[in-house]
Design goal:
Elements lengths: L3 H10 L6 E2 L1 H8 L3 H13 L3 E4 L3 E4 L13 H7 L3 E4 L10 E4 L4 H4 L7 E5 L3 H9 L3 E4 L7 H10 L3 E3 L4 H19 L17 E2 L4 H11 L3 E5 L5 E6 H4 L8 H4 L1 E2 L10 H11 L3 E5 L5 E6 H12 L8 H6 L3 E4 L5 E6 L13 H16 L5 E13 L7 E11 L3 E10 L2 E14 L1
Helix pairs in contact: 1-3, 2-3, 6-7, 12-13
Protein name: CBS domain-containing protein
InterPro entries: CBS_dom, CBS_dom_sf, Diverse_CBS-Domain, DRTGG, HotDog_dom_sf, Ser_kin/Pase_Hpr-like_N_sf, Thioestr_dom, WH-like_DNA-bd_sf
Organism: Marinithermofilum abyssi
């Protein structure tokens, strides 16, 4: 039987897109406490089923597929720019295709305004009205209001009119930053990306005998299974090693390994792979927030998915990419490589010296780039030890020199030094685990 939490989630999932909900309404209609309703709504928000907008409320939105993750809903735009909705609240669940900055004459501006767009403009009442008539929502900058005619039209067409106190340039930068962050997230594979709803996991129940394990092995060819109770909650893992020497009538509950390591659908595949290698396990159960089993992933599945990810185009730069953008690779006389660059203002701390976080990024990225010359695959840091740190001033020229110490099939060890004016400014040892492509 489903728990109250699950019943609320099912209820929310069954609501029409754009439906507005509240804690009190959920508590009253489903006969649960407001605390239970609040926790379920927050869980639904983390799952992408609803979006909460300040001064508006919580709205049922369409759950986005990974291919559409970079597209924002108008409800999310309200939160990004800390705005308030003047009209068209019922359209907050809709997704914007692109945003247009209204910094030109009306005739020229309307060439760019299309259905599904978001027009960012100041206090130009006529532009607000025409934009809505063309099927585009409006974001008014500078904290200005809209006319009653525009508000009524927005309600009628279900197109939001939003007002915020920021200027046009700042608003455009904030929205662009949010889209850019989503592009980076889009290329990071999560556990949920490799779970197939068409192939539910094979599992055993607590009250089943060991003979059922042997039967399942014959049917599936696998040798590891999660163990759940009648409600579907995970309690353990049972493997061929666990059942050796036990009578066929003994209960699974008595031979299983309790409290296994688990992951959630939002865990990154890289983190799951690292967990498997570090702990020496072949199978990870995937559970939801209520610890119910929703799938399993094997080490082979994870590696295959990471291999696939490497074939996909890069669509966003991470902090390490941005840090290394200004560095050039040079060959040393001994055949090694080094990376030379200048400390920019973005790389410094408030005192004007190279930030420790940035320095860590430089050291690890240099180690990874050296290892990739010997190993065509991905890697994850296993150990990072810093032996020396000296302050490096703004606009100083530095040289990052990685040297390979040891290399195996599944690991690599690199010594990395940072030189400034011929002197060692930082020194670290980086050990990484390899992920085969």
């Amino acid at each position: 039987m489903a728990t109250k939490h699950e019943q609320i989630l099912q209820y929310i999932e069954g609501l029409d897109i754009g439906h507005k909900i509240s804690v009190r309404q959920i508590a009253r209609e489903l006969g649960v406490s407001e605390g239970t309703a609040y926790r379920a709504i927050k869980d639904a928000e983390s799952q992408g089923l609803v979006s909460t907008v300040e001064r508006v409320g919580t709205v049922r939105i369409e759950k986005k597929h990974r291919s559409q993750i970079e597209r924002l809903t108008f409800a999310e735009v309200v939160n990004i720019v800390d705005g308030h909705v003047l009209g068209g609240r019922s359209g907050l669940h809709k997704t914007l295709n692109r945003f247009v900055i209204g910094a030109m004459k009306l005739e020229a501006m309307m060439r760019y305004v299309e259905p599904g767009n978001l027009l960012i403009v100041g206090n130009r009442d006529n532009v607000h009205r025409i934009s809505l008539e063309r099927g585009a929502a409006v974001l008014i900058t500078g904290g200005f209001d809209a006319t009653e005619e525009v508000k009524a039209l927005a309600d009628q067409l279900e197109l939001p009119v939003i007002s915020c106190s920021y200027d046009t340039f700042t608003v455009a930068a904030m929205i662009n930053r949010a889209i850019y962050d989503r592009l980076i997230k889009k290329e990071i594979l999560l556990v949920e990306d490799m779970l197939s709803p068409d192939h539910p996991p094979e599992y055993l129940r607590l009250d089943e005998p060991v003979s059922r394990f042997h039967q399942l092995v014959q049917e599936t060819g696998h040798s590891r299974y999660p163990v759940v109770d009648d409600a579907g909650r995970l309690h353990g893992i049972v493997t061929a090693k666990d059942v050796v020497g036990h009578d066929s009538e003994e209960m699974i509950e008595r031979v299983m390994t309790k409290n296994p390591i688990t992951v959630t659908p939002k865990t990154s595949l890289a983190a799951a792979a690292h967990e498997m290698v570090w702990e020496g396990i072949e199978l990870l159960p995937v559970v939801n927030s209520q610890h119910h089993l929703i799938g399993v992933i094997s080490r082979q599945d994870v590696i295959k998915s990471l291999q696939y990810m490497q074939k996909q185009p890069q669509v966003g730069e991470t902090i390490n990419d941005l840090i290394f953008r200004g560095f050039e690779e040079v060959r040393e006389r001994n055949g090694g490589i080094a990376f030379r660059g200048t400390v920019t203002p973005q790389m410094t701390d408030p005192l004007g010296t190279l930030g420790t976080g940035v320095l860590t990024g430089l050291l690890t990225e240099a180690a990874y780039r050296l290892l990739r010359r010997h190993h065509r695959g991905d890697m994850v840091a296993d150990n990072f030890t810093v032996y020396m740190l000296k302050p490096v001033q703004l606009e100083s020229e530095i040289e990052v020199v990685p040297r390979l110490i040891d290399m195996g099939r599944k690991f690599g060890k690199v010594d990395v030094e940072v030189f400034h004016n011929g002197q060692v400014a930082a020194k670290a040892l980086v050990t990484a685990q390899m992920i085969e492509r």
